[in-house]
Amino acid sequence: MTDLIKHEQRDGVLTLTIDRPDKLNALNNAMYTQLAELLLAADEDPQTGVIILTGGPACFTSGNDLVDFLQNPPTHLDAPAFRLMKVVTRLQKPLIAAVCGAAIGIGTTLLLHCDQVLVTRNAKLRMPFVNIGLCPEFGASLLLPRRLGHARAASLLLLGNGLDGNEAVNWGIANEAFDDGEQCLAAARKIAQRFLALPQEALRQSRKLMKQATLPELEATLREENTLFIQRLNTDEAKTALNALLNRSTDKNPPKGNQP
């Protein structure tokens, strides 16, 4: 299979780029596996100090590849997407997200685990889980209400409302918004250099302190969410909604993702 996660190591910074523009960077199981392996290797590599995750200057990710998702749904807690979640929550090194354009489903929930999130003003963040008969994932049911309060979290997780880049900053999901993708990526590289200039052991220990108190609760939430997510996939509600979504995508264009 073509390498759909590009990785570039330069001056202590590993940049991981989701590179599937013809499918709006939709993620399939092979891509989840590759991302997890690259992050694990970076965490153990003494030459890597910071990780940038991006989809390039036009689109972050439209979510799961719908065809792959329906043909190879997660059936156990070690499924590729769930394994990536475990890796990210245990990551020891700073993770920066540069989000340009669409960030759907896991494209948004992933941001809750990053140390810095930069977005373009035209970014579209959305988590349409309930809309397609599923439930939140990646700890969003725990992290979003704590960060935003129940009412705002409910508008995103229950109603499936979206946010643009400026709104993501105002709501505290992102740090800063930029006019275009090139500015966003350049800013991510500057922040990476700032991280690298810090005393590295102090940085890692401080980051660990910030996350360790909530880690057991987060991992318990991940297990509960993922177990329910698997169960929801077998319900008539989810099957009907997902098949309708696939049919709509097929009618317009080959399916590109943008799902859970």
Automatic annotation (TrEMBL):
It is an enzyme of class 4 (lyase). The keyword Lyase applies. Keywords: Isomerase, Lyase, Membrane, Peroxisome, Transmembrane, Transmembrane helix. Its EC number is 4.2.1.17. The keyword Isomerase applies. One of its GO terms (molecular function) is enoyl-CoA hydratase activity. The chain crosses the membrane at residues 95-113. It is found in: Peroxisome. This is Enoyl-CoA hydratase. It comes from Pseudomonas laurylsulfatiphila.
